[in-house]
Amino acid sequence: SYALGEGGDPGGALVLRAPFRHGYQFVGWQVSAPYSDLFLHADDIISYSVDNGGTPHLVVTAGGTAQELGVPASLTLTAQWLKGSEVTGPEETANLVYGYGAFDCMLAVGASAGAGETLSYQWYQSDSKTNQGGTLIGGATGASYYVPKGLGVGEHYYYCQVTSTRGGVSAITASAVSTVTVKPAPLTVTYAGETISFGDTPQLKVTVTGFVYGETPEGLSGYQAPAILADPSTLTAVGTYELKPSNADPDANATANYQFANYVPGNLIINPASMAAGVTAGGVAVIYDGNGYSIT
Fold first, then answer.
1. Which residues are 81's β-sheet partners?
2. What pTM value is reported for the model?
3. How far apart are the first and last CA of the chain?
């Protein structure tokens, strides 16, 4: 602290300087009572003098504007400091599945304000796991932030800068980085099965479900549709065949944001064909199951 006018000091002028304190930022000088509402900064000037009548005068020049304080004959200034807030959070990791909703993932930080301090928040998205040089997210100025829906499969990085402000001085502290991992949405491939008569051609129709955000296979780049890959020549005799859909490429994936997770088999049932009969010169000819028979 500084003290003027003590011990019979006849007067003088003091130009305030910013002191140094490791780990802190200097905010300003707090003036003692009865001027405790007066807050001074570096380069402000305090002048003390005593006129011929013995009356002391204190004049403060703050920001270029002079203000006479009058009594008391002494004035004490105490340095005020600002230290960036200790920030906790956000969550180190968060796991989502493509197709998640707008309110499924909330990141949050915690910070406490010191006496006379105000806190403000700003969230950033980063291209890597670092809390510097990220892209400012417009409107994300609260202690919490909802990850927007629609992020593609992969890792996405977020952090928050917390600003402590006091007396026009600010200290910024960056939070830890949260890694948000989006995994592919699972697709279910189903062959529902069908019943046909001998000699008919099966449709072998496969359905795929699990698409999200209104997306369809037609709009997905690189989509490889599964199918029933059984050899048609093995599906001709009367009987029941359990058929499971698959991909020609066993490592094939649906597309960047989807994966084939479940393959549901179905039964192809081939029933005997209806009996067809015709009259010939030798009697009745019958065709059944693809074979010809004579009835005499």
1. 26
2. 0.75
3. 129
